[in-house]
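Propose amino acids for all 101 sites.
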């Protein structure tokens, strides 16, 4: 990526952060879809600086505070995923959602 001379506007930095967030979100979705073993997904999340907020047998919640990404994994009893969601904090709706500071 090339930048022209001069000050980088605040919006441009915001756009770079948004692009980085989206790239990581896509990467996480690809990892989840291609990796049936949760232990491998857990290691991938850790390597991307995600922090477990909850890591139980039925639900796992991971956050990446710097990029403001939230990952929810709902597990099947057989070991696969019943569902998942990868989203930015800003996209979460509802007052019942409590996010780490």
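Proposal:
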């Amino acid at each position: 990526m090339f930048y022209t001379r001069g000050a980088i506007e605040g919006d441009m930095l915001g756009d770079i952060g948004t692009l980085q967030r989206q790239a990581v979100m896509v990467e996480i979705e690809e990892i989840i879809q291609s990796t049936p073993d949760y232990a491998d997904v857990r290691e991938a999340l850790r390597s991307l600086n995600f922090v477990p907020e909850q890591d139980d047998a039925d639900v796992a919640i991971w956050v990446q505070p710097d990029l403001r990404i939230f990952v929810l994994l709902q597990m099947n009893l057989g070991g696969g995923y019943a569902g998942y969601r990868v989203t930015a904090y800003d996209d979460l709706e509802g007052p019942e959602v409590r996010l780490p500071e």
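The first strand starts at residue 51 and ends at 55. Strands lie at 51-55, 59-64, 69-75, 81-88.
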